[in-house]
Amino acid sequence: MSIFNKQANKMSSTSYLVVGVDFWLMFSVVMLISIGIAMVASSSFAIAEKYNDDAFHYLNRHIVFIGLGSMFSIVILAMKMDWMQKLSRILMAVAIILLVLVLIPGIGVEINGSQRWLNLGFSRFQVVEAVKLAMIVYLAGYIVRHKTGVQNSFSGVIKPLFLSVILAALLLMQPDFGSAVLLIVITLFMVFIAGARYRDLSILGLLSASSMALIAIAEPYRVKRLISFQNPWDDPFDGGFQLVQALIAIGSGKLSGIGIGGSVQKLFYLPEAHTDFIFSVYAEEMGFIGVVVLITLYLVLITRIFAISKQAYVYGKDFASFACAGIGVWIALQAFLSMGVNLGLLPTKGLTLPFISSGGSAIMMSLLSLAIVMRVSYENRMHNLKAIRKYDEEVA
After folding, report:
1. pTM, whole model, 2 decimals?
2. pLDDT over threshold 60, residue 293
3. Which of 205, 237, 258, 280 satisfies CB 3.0 to 4.6 Å to 246 for a cystine?
Protein backbone atom coordinates (compact mmCIF):
# COMPACT_ATOMS: atom_id res chain seq x y z
CA MET A 1 0.00 0.00 0.00
CA SER A 2 1.31 3.50 -0.88
CA ILE A 3 2.40 5.60 2.08
CA PHE A 4 -0.08 8.27 0.95
CA ASN A 5 -3.01 5.95 1.65
CA LYS A 6 -2.60 6.45 5.40
CA GLN A 7 -3.61 10.07 5.04
CA ALA A 8 -6.25 9.71 2.33
CA ASN A 9 -9.20 9.19 4.67
CA LYS A 10 -8.24 12.21 6.78
CA MET A 11 -8.61 14.77 4.00
CA SER A 12 -11.87 16.01 2.49
CA SER A 13 -12.43 17.85 -0.76
CA THR A 14 -12.78 21.10 1.18
CA SER A 15 -9.48 20.78 3.07
CA TYR A 16 -7.66 23.44 1.06
CA LEU A 17 -8.54 27.00 0.12
CA VAL A 18 -8.93 27.60 -3.61
CA VAL A 19 -7.16 30.93 -3.83
CA GLY A 20 -4.18 32.07 -5.90
CA VAL A 21 -0.93 30.14 -5.88
CA ASP A 22 0.63 28.16 -3.06
CA PHE A 23 2.13 31.02 -1.01
CA TRP A 24 4.84 29.10 0.83
CA LEU A 25 5.91 27.26 -2.31
CA MET A 26 6.30 30.53 -4.21
CA PHE A 27 7.90 32.32 -1.26
CA SER A 28 10.60 29.68 -0.80
CA VAL A 29 11.34 29.45 -4.54
CA VAL A 30 11.57 33.22 -5.00
CA MET A 31 13.82 33.53 -1.95
CA LEU A 32 16.11 30.72 -3.13
CA ILE A 33 16.38 32.18 -6.63
CA SER A 34 17.10 35.63 -5.17
CA ILE A 35 19.81 34.22 -2.93
CA GLY A 36 21.19 32.36 -5.94
CA ILE A 37 21.44 35.53 -8.02
CA ALA A 38 23.21 37.37 -5.20
CA MET A 39 25.64 34.49 -4.59
CA VAL A 40 26.43 33.94 -8.28
CA ALA A 41 27.21 37.64 -8.51
CA SER A 42 29.41 37.54 -5.42
CA SER A 43 31.22 34.28 -6.12
CA SER A 44 31.90 34.73 -9.83
CA PHE A 45 33.12 38.32 -10.21
CA ALA A 46 36.83 37.55 -9.87
CA ILE A 47 36.93 34.47 -12.10
CA ALA A 48 34.64 36.08 -14.71
CA GLU A 49 36.84 39.17 -14.94
CA LYS A 50 39.99 37.10 -15.29
CA TYR A 51 38.82 34.59 -17.89
CA ASN A 52 36.08 36.51 -19.72
CA ASP A 53 37.13 40.16 -19.29
CA ASP A 54 33.64 40.80 -17.94
CA ALA A 55 32.98 40.66 -14.20
CA PHE A 56 29.25 40.17 -14.87
CA HIS A 57 29.64 37.31 -17.37
CA TYR A 58 28.34 34.48 -15.15
CA LEU A 59 25.74 36.68 -13.48
CA ASN A 60 24.30 37.83 -16.81
CA ARG A 61 24.30 34.25 -18.08
CA HIS A 62 22.56 33.05 -14.92
CA ILE A 63 19.84 35.69 -15.24
CA VAL A 64 19.32 34.93 -18.94
CA PHE A 65 18.75 31.25 -18.20
CA ILE A 66 16.37 32.13 -15.36
CA GLY A 67 14.44 34.13 -17.94
CA LEU A 68 14.49 31.26 -20.44
CA GLY A 69 13.46 28.78 -17.77
CA SER A 70 10.57 31.05 -16.76
CA MET A 71 9.43 31.33 -20.39
CA PHE A 72 9.48 27.55 -20.90
CA SER A 73 7.71 27.14 -17.57
CA ILE A 74 4.70 28.96 -19.00
CA VAL A 75 4.31 26.10 -21.49
CA ILE A 76 4.43 23.56 -18.65
CA LEU A 77 1.88 25.53 -16.64
CA ALA A 78 -0.50 25.44 -19.62
CA MET A 79 -0.09 21.67 -20.09
CA LYS A 80 -2.52 19.29 -18.39
CA MET A 81 -0.85 16.57 -16.37
CA ASP A 82 -2.80 14.01 -18.41
CA TRP A 83 -1.00 15.27 -21.52
CA MET A 84 2.34 15.06 -19.77
CA GLN A 85 1.61 11.48 -18.79
CA LYS A 86 1.04 10.61 -22.46
CA LEU A 87 4.37 12.26 -23.36
CA SER A 88 6.36 10.56 -20.57
CA ARG A 89 7.69 7.68 -22.68
CA ILE A 90 8.63 10.01 -25.53
CA LEU A 91 10.53 12.24 -23.10
CA MET A 92 12.44 9.22 -21.78
CA ALA A 93 13.38 8.14 -25.30
CA VAL A 94 14.63 11.65 -26.09
CA ALA A 95 16.66 11.67 -22.86
CA ILE A 96 18.41 8.42 -23.79
CA ILE A 97 19.17 9.72 -27.29
CA LEU A 98 20.68 12.90 -25.81
CA LEU A 99 22.86 10.85 -23.45
CA VAL A 100 24.19 8.94 -26.45
CA LEU A 101 24.72 12.08 -28.54
CA VAL A 102 26.74 13.78 -25.82
CA LEU A 103 29.33 10.98 -26.04
CA ILE A 104 29.94 11.61 -29.76
CA PRO A 105 33.04 13.80 -30.40
CA GLY A 106 32.11 17.06 -32.09
CA ILE A 107 28.58 16.99 -30.68
CA GLY A 108 29.47 16.50 -27.04
CA VAL A 109 31.75 19.06 -25.39
CA GLU A 110 34.56 17.93 -23.09
CA ILE A 111 35.51 20.12 -20.13
CA ASN A 112 38.03 19.12 -17.46
CA GLY A 113 38.10 15.54 -18.69
CA SER A 114 34.29 15.09 -18.65
CA GLN A 115 32.10 15.01 -21.75
CA ARG A 116 28.73 16.09 -20.34
CA TRP A 117 27.58 18.97 -22.51
CA LEU A 118 25.93 19.35 -25.91
CA ASN A 119 27.21 22.12 -28.14
CA LEU A 120 24.20 24.23 -29.16
CA GLY A 121 26.33 26.83 -30.91
CA PHE A 122 25.21 29.80 -28.82
CA SER A 123 25.60 27.91 -25.55
CA ARG A 124 26.28 24.51 -23.95
CA PHE A 125 23.60 22.31 -22.44
CA GLN A 126 24.30 19.75 -19.70
CA VAL A 127 22.15 16.80 -20.73
CA VAL A 128 21.94 15.11 -17.33
CA GLU A 129 19.80 17.94 -15.93
CA ALA A 130 17.08 17.20 -18.50
CA VAL A 131 17.53 13.45 -18.00
CA LYS A 132 16.74 13.74 -14.27
CA LEU A 133 13.40 15.41 -14.93
CA ALA A 134 12.54 13.12 -17.86
CA MET A 135 13.24 10.05 -15.75
CA ILE A 136 11.05 11.30 -12.90
CA VAL A 137 8.15 11.96 -15.28
CA TYR A 138 8.62 8.56 -16.92
CA LEU A 139 8.79 6.73 -13.58
CA ALA A 140 5.59 8.47 -12.45
CA GLY A 141 3.87 7.14 -15.58
CA TYR A 142 5.36 3.67 -15.09
CA ILE A 143 4.15 3.49 -11.48
CA VAL A 144 0.61 4.45 -12.55
CA ARG A 145 0.59 1.79 -15.27
CA HIS A 146 2.12 -0.92 -13.09
CA LYS A 147 1.19 0.06 -9.54
CA THR A 148 0.04 -3.44 -8.59
CA GLY A 149 3.26 -4.95 -9.88
CA VAL A 150 5.41 -2.38 -8.09
CA GLN A 151 3.60 -3.02 -4.82
CA ASN A 152 3.43 -6.82 -4.99
CA SER A 153 6.24 -8.25 -7.12
CA PHE A 154 10.02 -8.10 -7.34
CA SER A 155 9.93 -7.78 -11.13
CA GLY A 156 7.67 -4.74 -10.89
CA VAL A 157 10.37 -2.94 -8.89
CA ILE A 158 13.42 -4.16 -10.78
CA LYS A 159 12.18 -2.97 -14.19
CA PRO A 160 12.37 0.79 -13.41
CA LEU A 161 15.66 0.21 -11.59
CA PHE A 162 17.01 -1.51 -14.71
CA LEU A 163 16.20 1.64 -16.69
CA SER A 164 18.05 3.83 -14.18
CA VAL A 165 21.03 1.45 -14.41
CA ILE A 166 21.11 1.97 -18.19
CA LEU A 167 21.04 5.73 -17.70
CA ALA A 168 23.70 5.46 -15.00
CA ALA A 169 25.93 3.44 -17.34
CA LEU A 170 25.69 6.16 -19.99
CA LEU A 171 26.49 8.77 -17.34
CA LEU A 172 29.52 6.82 -16.13
CA MET A 173 30.88 6.95 -19.69
CA GLN A 174 31.01 10.76 -19.49
CA PRO A 175 32.05 10.24 -16.56
CA ASP A 176 29.49 11.57 -14.06
CA PHE A 177 29.45 9.28 -11.03
CA GLY A 178 27.53 11.68 -8.79
CA SER A 179 24.56 12.02 -11.15
CA ALA A 180 24.54 8.26 -11.81
CA VAL A 181 24.18 7.58 -8.08
CA LEU A 182 21.52 10.30 -7.79
CA LEU A 183 19.36 8.75 -10.54
CA ILE A 184 19.43 5.30 -8.91
CA VAL A 185 18.59 6.70 -5.46
CA ILE A 186 15.70 8.76 -6.89
CA THR A 187 14.34 5.61 -8.53
CA LEU A 188 14.49 3.65 -5.26
CA PHE A 189 12.76 6.46 -3.38
CA MET A 190 9.99 6.74 -5.97
CA VAL A 191 9.15 3.03 -5.89
CA PHE A 192 9.25 3.22 -2.09
CA ILE A 193 6.72 6.06 -2.14
CA ALA A 194 4.61 4.00 -4.55
CA GLY A 195 4.39 1.26 -1.93
CA ALA A 196 7.04 -1.28 -2.96
CA ARG A 197 7.70 -4.06 -0.44
CA TYR A 198 10.55 -3.45 2.01
CA ARG A 199 12.02 -6.85 1.14
CA ASP A 200 12.32 -5.94 -2.55
CA LEU A 201 13.71 -2.50 -1.77
CA SER A 202 16.26 -3.92 0.68
CA ILE A 203 17.58 -6.43 -1.87
CA LEU A 204 17.79 -3.88 -4.69
CA GLY A 205 19.20 -1.21 -2.41
CA LEU A 206 21.95 -3.54 -1.26
CA LEU A 207 22.77 -4.60 -4.82
CA SER A 208 22.81 -0.98 -6.00
CA ALA A 209 25.02 0.19 -3.12
CA SER A 210 27.46 -2.69 -3.66
CA SER A 211 27.66 -2.00 -7.39
CA MET A 212 28.24 1.71 -6.87
CA ALA A 213 30.94 0.96 -4.30
CA LEU A 214 32.75 -1.34 -6.74
CA ILE A 215 32.52 1.27 -9.50
CA ALA A 216 33.80 3.94 -7.11
CA ILE A 217 36.96 2.02 -6.22
CA ALA A 218 37.56 0.92 -9.83
CA GLU A 219 38.93 4.35 -10.82
CA PRO A 220 42.06 5.72 -9.12
CA TYR A 221 40.80 9.31 -9.06
CA ARG A 222 37.63 8.23 -7.22
CA VAL A 223 39.68 6.28 -4.67
CA LYS A 224 41.81 9.38 -4.19
CA ARG A 225 38.67 11.43 -3.50
CA LEU A 226 37.45 8.90 -0.97
CA ILE A 227 40.78 8.89 0.84
CA SER A 228 41.13 12.69 0.83
CA PHE A 229 37.52 13.08 2.01
CA GLN A 230 38.30 11.11 5.18
CA ASN A 231 41.07 13.53 6.16
CA PRO A 232 41.69 16.30 3.61
CA TRP A 233 44.34 17.89 5.86
CA ASP A 234 46.69 14.98 5.11
CA ASP A 235 47.01 16.25 1.53
CA PRO A 236 45.87 19.89 1.63
CA PHE A 237 47.59 20.93 -1.62
CA ASP A 238 46.48 18.09 -3.87
CA GLY A 239 43.71 15.54 -3.25
CA GLY A 240 42.24 17.41 -0.28
CA PHE A 241 42.67 20.91 -1.72
CA GLN A 242 39.03 21.59 -2.66
CA LEU A 243 37.62 20.36 0.63
CA VAL A 244 40.24 22.17 2.72
CA GLN A 245 39.44 25.46 0.98
CA ALA A 246 35.71 24.83 1.39
CA LEU A 247 36.10 24.15 5.10
CA ILE A 248 38.24 27.26 5.55
CA ALA A 249 35.50 29.30 3.87
CA ILE A 250 32.74 27.82 6.02
CA GLY A 251 34.77 28.23 9.21
CA SER A 252 35.55 31.85 8.37
CA GLY A 253 31.83 32.67 8.29
CA LYS A 254 31.39 31.96 12.02
CA LEU A 255 27.98 33.03 13.36
CA SER A 256 26.90 35.93 11.16
CA GLY A 257 29.34 35.81 8.25
CA ILE A 258 31.77 38.37 6.88
CA GLY A 259 29.16 40.06 4.71
CA ILE A 260 27.87 39.67 1.17
CA GLY A 261 30.71 40.08 -1.33
CA GLY A 262 33.39 39.75 1.35
CA SER A 263 34.47 36.16 0.70
CA VAL A 264 38.23 35.63 0.45
CA GLN A 265 38.15 31.98 -0.64
CA LYS A 266 36.35 32.84 -3.87
CA LEU A 267 39.44 34.78 -4.96
CA PHE A 268 41.03 31.81 -6.81
CA TYR A 269 41.49 29.72 -3.65
CA LEU A 270 38.29 27.69 -3.85
CA PRO A 271 37.77 25.89 -7.21
CA GLU A 272 34.24 25.97 -8.69
CA ALA A 273 33.26 28.68 -6.22
CA HIS A 274 30.26 29.76 -8.31
CA THR A 275 29.00 26.23 -9.12
CA ASP A 276 29.68 23.10 -7.05
CA PHE A 277 31.12 24.94 -4.02
CA ILE A 278 28.88 27.99 -3.94
CA PHE A 279 27.49 26.85 -0.58
CA SER A 280 30.92 27.37 0.99
CA VAL A 281 31.05 30.95 -0.28
CA TYR A 282 27.52 31.50 1.00
CA ALA A 283 28.46 30.14 4.45
CA GLU A 284 31.56 32.36 4.52
CA GLU A 285 29.58 35.49 3.71
CA MET A 286 26.33 34.78 5.58
CA GLY A 287 27.59 32.65 8.47
CA PHE A 288 25.77 30.01 10.50
CA ILE A 289 22.62 32.12 10.68
CA GLY A 290 22.51 32.38 6.90
CA VAL A 291 23.02 28.62 6.55
CA VAL A 292 20.10 27.96 8.90
CA VAL A 293 17.92 30.33 6.84
CA LEU A 294 18.93 28.57 3.61
CA ILE A 295 18.22 25.09 4.99
CA THR A 296 14.87 26.33 6.34
CA LEU A 297 13.90 27.60 2.89
CA TYR A 298 14.71 24.21 1.37
CA LEU A 299 12.68 22.47 4.07
CA VAL A 300 9.70 24.74 3.41
CA LEU A 301 9.96 24.13 -0.34
CA ILE A 302 10.27 20.35 -0.04
CA THR A 303 7.49 20.15 2.57
CA ARG A 304 5.10 22.04 0.30
CA ILE A 305 6.00 19.86 -2.71
CA PHE A 306 5.18 16.70 -0.78
CA ALA A 307 1.99 18.26 0.60
CA ILE A 308 0.86 19.05 -2.96
CA SER A 309 1.81 15.53 -4.02
CA LYS A 310 -0.21 13.97 -1.18
CA GLN A 311 -3.23 16.11 -1.98
CA ALA A 312 -3.09 15.03 -5.64
CA TYR A 313 -2.99 11.39 -4.52
CA VAL A 314 -6.06 11.89 -2.34
CA TYR A 315 -7.88 13.36 -5.35
CA GLY A 316 -7.04 10.30 -7.45
CA LYS A 317 -4.42 12.07 -9.58
CA ASP A 318 -1.78 9.37 -9.25
CA PHE A 319 0.52 10.47 -12.06
CA ALA A 320 0.60 14.06 -10.84
CA SER A 321 1.20 12.86 -7.30
CA PHE A 322 4.16 10.61 -8.13
CA ALA A 323 5.72 13.17 -10.51
CA CYS A 324 5.49 15.77 -7.74
CA ALA A 325 6.96 13.38 -5.18
CA GLY A 326 9.84 12.52 -7.51
CA ILE A 327 10.66 16.20 -7.96
CA GLY A 328 10.61 16.67 -4.19
CA VAL A 329 12.99 13.73 -3.75
CA TRP A 330 15.30 15.11 -6.46
CA ILE A 331 15.55 18.59 -4.96
CA ALA A 332 15.94 17.24 -1.42
CA LEU A 333 18.64 14.74 -2.34
CA GLN A 334 20.63 17.11 -4.53
CA ALA A 335 20.53 19.90 -1.95
CA PHE A 336 21.60 17.46 0.78
CA LEU A 337 24.41 15.97 -1.33
CA SER A 338 25.70 19.36 -2.47
CA MET A 339 25.78 20.81 1.05
CA GLY A 340 27.17 17.53 2.41
CA VAL A 341 30.10 17.67 -0.01
CA ASN A 342 30.84 21.29 0.93
CA LEU A 343 30.74 20.42 4.64
CA GLY A 344 33.03 17.42 4.22
CA LEU A 345 30.29 14.96 5.16
CA LEU A 346 30.39 13.28 1.73
CA PRO A 347 33.10 12.61 -0.87
CA THR A 348 33.61 15.35 -3.46
CA LYS A 349 31.33 15.03 -6.49
CA GLY A 350 30.10 17.49 -9.09
CA LEU A 351 26.56 18.36 -8.01
CA THR A 352 25.15 21.87 -8.05
CA LEU A 353 23.00 23.39 -5.31
CA PRO A 354 19.41 23.71 -6.68
CA PHE A 355 18.34 27.28 -7.50
CA ILE A 356 21.60 28.66 -6.09
CA SER A 357 24.57 27.49 -8.19
CA SER A 358 25.51 29.12 -11.46
CA GLY A 359 24.66 27.04 -14.50
CA GLY A 360 22.20 27.47 -17.34
CA SER A 361 20.99 23.88 -17.69
CA ALA A 362 20.57 23.35 -13.94
CA ILE A 363 18.55 26.47 -13.21
CA MET A 364 16.36 25.96 -16.30
CA MET A 365 15.44 22.39 -15.40
CA SER A 366 14.88 23.34 -11.76
CA LEU A 367 12.38 25.98 -12.88
CA LEU A 368 10.65 23.52 -15.22
CA SER A 369 10.35 21.01 -12.38
CA LEU A 370 8.75 23.67 -10.18
CA ALA A 371 6.38 24.53 -13.02
CA ILE A 372 5.16 20.92 -12.91
CA VAL A 373 4.59 21.21 -9.16
CA MET A 374 2.69 24.47 -9.66
CA ARG A 375 0.56 22.85 -12.37
CA VAL A 376 -0.30 20.00 -10.00
CA SER A 377 -1.15 22.54 -7.29
CA TYR A 378 -3.43 24.38 -9.73
CA GLU A 379 -5.22 21.17 -10.75
CA ASN A 380 -5.67 20.31 -7.07
CA ARG A 381 -7.34 23.66 -6.45
CA MET A 382 -9.59 23.25 -9.49
CA HIS A 383 -10.62 19.80 -8.26
CA ASN A 384 -11.35 21.26 -4.85
CA LEU A 385 -13.36 24.11 -6.33
CA LYS A 386 -15.54 21.70 -8.33
CA ALA A 387 -16.14 19.64 -5.20
CA ILE A 388 -17.17 22.75 -3.24
CA ARG A 389 -19.54 23.88 -6.01
CA LYS A 390 -21.07 20.40 -6.24
CA TYR A 391 -21.59 20.35 -2.48
CA ASP A 392 -23.19 23.82 -2.54
CA GLU A 393 -25.55 22.72 -5.31
CA GLU A 394 -26.57 19.60 -3.40
CA VAL A 395 -27.22 21.63 -0.24
CA ALA A 396 -29.19 24.23 -2.16
Report:
1. 0.88
2. yes
3. 280
